[in-house]
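Protein modeling request. Please complete all fields; requests missing the sequence field cannot be processed.
Requester role: graduate student
Desired output: 3D structure, C-alpha cell encoding
Chains: 1
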Amino acid sequence: MTSFTKQTLITLYSKGMSLTDLSNNLHCSIHKITYWMRKYDIKRRSRSDAAYIQANPQGNPFHIHYPQTPSEHFLYGLGLGIYWGEGTKATNFAVRVANSDPGIILTFRKFLISICHIDLTRVRYSIVAFNDSDIHTVKSYWSKQLKISSDKFGKIVQIPTQGKGTYKRKSQHGVCTITVSNTKLKAWIMGELKKVSMPG
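Delivered output (200 residues):
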C-alpha cells in the first residue's frame, strides 16, 4: 500500500514540485512516484510547463480583467490593436512592443497594467537610437515621457541613421521597446488577436 493519497500527490505536484522533490517530500523512491502517478492517472508536465512553473513559483504573474465599462472596452481594443500593429509575433515567450511615439508605449503599458494586471516591476524597457544621438538626451527624453528612472533602460543600442527629413525628426529620440516576458500572457494576447481577426 502507498503511504500517500492521490490528492496529496496532485496537490504537491500542482505546486510545481519535480519528481525528485516529491520523492524527498514523501520519503520514497522516484520509481514509486512515477508508478503511482501512472496508477492515479496524473498527467506529467511537459518540459516547457515545468520551466514555466520554476520561473513563476507563485503562479501566473498576471490576471486578465475582461472589460466591463466603455473605457475598459476602449483600452482593451487599443491594447490589442497596438500589439497587432506594433507587437513582436515571432517569439513565444515575450510580449514586446516597439515605437518612437511615447503615447503608443504609454497606452500599451496601461493595457498591461489595467487589463492584464501585470506588476510594474515585471515591465522592462530598452532603447535603440541613432549613432549620432546624444545618449543622455535620449534617456532623459524617454524617462520624462514614461515617468520612470533613466536607469530602467540600461545600455542604449545605437545604429546608423536610417533616413532624413521627417523620418529623422520623428525618430530623433530613437525607438523604445516595452517588454514583459511570459509565455502564457503572450499566448493569451495572440489568442485574443485571433478571435478579433476571424471573419464574422
